[in-house]
Amino acid sequence: MKYPEIQDKVRKEIFDVVGTSRLPSMSDKPNMPYTQAVIHEVQRHSNMIPILGSHLNVEDTTVLGKKVPAGSFLIAQIWSVMKNDKVFEDGEKFNPDRYLLSDRKTFNKTVLERTIPFSVGKRNCVGEGLARMELFLIFSALIQKYEFVPASKVDLTPVWGAVLTTNPYRCKLFPDKNIHIHFDDLAKKYGPCFTLWTPLPSVVITDYEYLKDAFVTQGEAFIQRSNRPPETLLQPHPNTGVLASSGENWRLQRRTSLKILRDFGLGRNLMEEQVMRSVHEMLTQLEGIADKKNVDMFWPIQLCVGNVINESLFGYHYKYEDAERFKTFVKVVDRHLKTAQGRIPLLIAAFPWLRHVPIIGELGYHSIKRNIEQYQTFIDEEVASQVKEYDGESEPDNFVHAYMKQMKQSGNQGLDMPNLCASVLDFWLAGMETTSNSLRWHLAYMMKYPEIQDKVRKEIFDVVGTSRLPSMSDKPNMPYTQAVIHEVQRHSNMVPMLGTHKSVEDIVVKGQNIPSGTNVFAQIWSILRNDSVFEESYKFKPERYLQKDGKTMDKAVLEKTIPFSIGKRNCVGEGLARMELFLIFSALIQKYEFVPNASVDLAPEWGAVLTTKPYTKYPKGPFPLPFIGNIHQFPPDHVQLWFDEMAKVYGPCFTVWIPFPAIVLVDYEHVKEAFVTLGDTFTYRAHRSPETLLPVHDHTGILASDGDHWRLQRRTSLKILRDFGLGRNLMEEQVIRSVQEMLVQVENITDKKNVDMFWPIQLCVGNVINETLFGFHYKYEDSEKFKTFVRVVDKHLRHLQGKMPLLVSAFPWMRHLPIIGDYGYHNIKNNISSYQTFIEEEVASQLKKYDGVSEPENFVHAYMQQMSQTGNPGLDVTNLCASVLDFWLAGMETTSNSLRWHLAYMMKYPEIQDRVRKEILENVGTSRLPTMADKPNLPYTQAVIHEVQRCSNMLPFLGSHQCVEDTLIKGKHVPAGTLVFAQIWSVMKNDPVFKDANSFNPDRYLQSDGKTFDKAVLEKTIPFSIGKRNCVGEGLARMELFLIFSALIQKYEFVATSNIDLSPEWGVVLTSKPYTCQLIPQQ
User: Fold this and answer.
1) At CA 469, angle to CA 464 and CA 470, rounded to 5?
2) 3-state DSSP call for residue 648?
3) Which cofactor does it need (predicted)?
4) What is the crossing angle of helices 894-908 and 758-774, to 10°?
């Protein structure tokens, strides 16, 4: 790698002597003098065993006149021999030629004699013969099969030891991405038809004439597929469908599919009308966008193209406002295109047994397989739905019906359900992803070259006008528009390599022998870039497709523009794709001028399909390392402080890699834009552990679910809470009962000089939520079961912190590793299972008591009634248990912790405690407890509650939100699928509305009259979050905080027994440090 020219020279000698069809053998060695010379020179120059093992002389002797007494140790430093001997001229230089005489074949015996890496004499290396054989065979095989390119600078200084080893290095057998460029470079060195070992021998063709000879002239010889993963993973059954099948079954499936498409009007008006309907729907959707200054065209284009193929396959369109299922499928496809790239899938294609090796199998096989299974399920469900609807006799409405009819009429056993599902999957993938990506490329080029966009629009207006959309009959009259479409396809070059073809017999392509069974890759990227017919090919120049009259197409240029491939296995949907590109692109340019919001970067995003880059990348953030991202930079605790520091460097919206990209928002305006203005875009959860461990079943309950299912659970739960009096007297009476029980318990404490308020507060809050959920209170003297549950919850919150859960979240297979799996997954899961059991037992107990008809007494009863009355399958016992668990955790732990913070602040600032008590006594007195009716008359008490919540800031991060589509937050691009964290800790610490934010100052919430609230300050105090996923129990929590806190301050003065430290204990919830207090009853 340090001397690539020598590597090339060795490879050339190997190719000349051995070729590529077999590995070098020892019989080749005499014919490979330069390779031998390189091996000798590496051994001399690396000089890796500087000192031989010690020798002990057995008698007095003389060595070249020097006396050596008996019993002396002799140490031979061969390092000096092979560096300094005068026979090695310029011994510091790496020069294999020193070993060869002038004829370049005969060895220089003098130089060879002094090259002694295995020592000399009676105690030379006993395994020298084997070692020399290994060095020759292994080294020559590696150089024959691969070019080795350093991933970074190669340092030849050795690492000291008994054996001098190389400094660690990494090399590239293939580049990490943009492999097509690497292939293009290899073609310049080895010609347009060369062999790569991947590690199977594969032939790469990068020239049009070679490709035409192979796939057109000798097309029958190259119609087979590789039948290796990841291609075979696309099919649940081998050799099915159109894309990955071979032989007679491929011919049958292709012939049947083309017949059905033609019957549905491909090339005639019927199919055109279908595309036009989809275009109309898209334009209506665009017209309805209020803010046209900041539009992401991803989903409008994706749905327009997707609906064409969906109507063809299944007979219906997705509505733009109800397309969640479609969007989920598209995300799965996108993930597949990303996971299927890279070197590891190539290794598994060559050695299928590697799928069973940890890490390699996960990255190169199982992750791809799991992803594919998701969209196979999607397709199977759609096909099954259509099969149920079709009687087999009626006129077919869609592809599935028509295929079913062909199955029945032909009786051909090759037409069956596995082939139908596989063919539908093929059309979905090939018919949607490439066309939608191509259209996004078209718009990107039009924004990059606005003068060309204007010229296309002028042609459309001249030919079509504005009163109707362009149609296929207009196409012959719009040569410049056609030329632009051809040039975008050529220049974007988005499918750089066609699917593999396998030769079925020994064949010769332009004089190059290709043995039977060889995989052949056609790199059309090189053809569309390098062919001499494309003058100045790097330029975007639509005029190259037109002759001088500006109307007639240049057939020579057109012939070599082959984005759909050529030959017998060219794209079966080419006709439909060309129709869609023309009709959708021309309609968009007719109706709108497209202007970029930022610089348009036409360098592609690498993948199986080269896609356009977003107009901006992820927001800037700290530089991530491979594999671990920024996790190594996270402090062991108080990560919110580190994020706050990062925001000072990168701004209030930045990216951290954990190790997948996650965007952190740290100011109110960004959080509001994301979760309120763009609320529907950020309603999804991460669906990664440890969040997914909380419910027994994934995607259940409220906290960790999303989509329609989350809406159903949230809506049902809020209805039940309102029915139980949330916001009315019923719920208030329940809270006051719990307060009275707590005050009785506190009054009975004998020694009020040293009181720990942990359990009185915990039971008071816990009994409110327990009565709501299950209809009963725990008694203070009989609450061991409750206390056990609280300890389990506390342990859970501690297990969630740290870096291990982040690693398992990013790489689920790590749960199987020792230590990492324990701390990042199993400890959390085992702990969660104990309180899942607690909840399930309580729910089961309540289910037994309820008849389903009577007036519900608690949440469990009410949920059961909703299940019975609505019949909605999304309301079931599994979701009931998950929702109850969510309310238990969120409704108890946060409120009880907040109340402990309230008392800590009151003891730290006794003058504020006195002021709160004075307000309560003046407005409520001492004969009754404060009620919600008193709240408007207690503005200072409310201000203190707000300020404690702001200063304690006990939930630094909100639960993760996942972006469901590409969007912009304050001009920062957020790609679909990105996790977004809102750090409200920073919002409530740093927003300029909070003057002198580090001071505890409740008066900031009140205007100068001491009664009216400052709305600007209140708006940015968001301890319960904001937007569609704000805390569902916020109303109950605010009621509890007011009623419990005001009752405690009314009845007692709280005096610290030691200094109160307001610095928090780190965890998912920031808790106050443990304290005790003296309680002074107030008369």
Assistant:
1) 55
2) helix
3) heme
4) 150
Cα 629 to Cα 979: distance, rounded to the nearest angstrom:
15
Distance CA 907, CA 1055 (A): 6
pTM of the model: 0.53
pLDDT tens-digit readout, 923-940: 999 999 999 999 999 999
Give the chain's end-to-end CA distance (angstroms, integer). 87
Cα separation values, 226 from 213, 360, 512, 651, Å: 20, 21, 20, 50
Q: What angle do CA 256, 258, 260 make, to 5 degrees?
A: 70
At residue 1048, the 3 state secondary structure works out as: helix
pLDDT at 520: 87
The answer to whether the annotation marks 571 as part of a ligand binding site is yes
- Side chain identity at residue 216, one-letter code: V
Residue carrying structure tokens 């404060």:
930
Provide CB contacts within 8 A for 593, sequence distance 6+: 453, 457
Residues 385-439: tens digit of each pLDDT: 888 888 877 888 888 998 998 888 888 888 999 889 888 888 887 778 788 888 9
Residue 994 in contact with residue 987, Cβ under 8 Å?
A: no
CA dist 332 and 682 (Å) reads 18
The percent helix, strand, coil of the chain (3-state, each to 5) is 55, 10, 40
- Residues 340-370: b if buried by 16+ CB within 10 A, e if exposed: bbbebbbbbbeeeeebeeeebbbbbbbbbee
pLDDT tens digits, 453-509: 999 999 999 999 999 999 999 999 999 999 999 999 999 887 777 777 888 899 999
Give strand ranges (E) for 206-334.
none
| Residue 615, pLDDT score | 45
- The whole-angstrom distance between residue 409's C-alpha and the CA centroid of its chain comes to 46
Rounded CA gap, 69 and 869, in Å?
106
What digits encode the pLDDT tens for the residues 642-700?
A: 999 999 999 999 999 887 789 999 999 999 999 998 888 888 887 665 565 555 677 78
pLDDT above 80 (res 608): no
Q: Alpha-carbon distance 1052 to 1046, whole Å?
A: 10
pLDDT of amino acid 277: 92
Domains by residue range for the chain, with CATH = 4-173 (1.10.630.10), 183-591 (1.10.630.10), 669-1081 (1.10.630.10)
Q: Tell me, what DSSP letter sits at residue 414?
A: T
Q: Which pair of structure tokens corresponds to residue 693?
A: 């461990």
Name the 3-class secondary structure at 625: strand
Other beta carbons within 10 Å of 1083: 3
For 926, phi then psi, to 5°, come to -120, -5
| Nearest one of 39, 2, 46, 41 to 158, comparing CA atoms | 46
* Residue type at 224 in one-letter notation: Q
3-class state of residue 58 by DSSP? coil
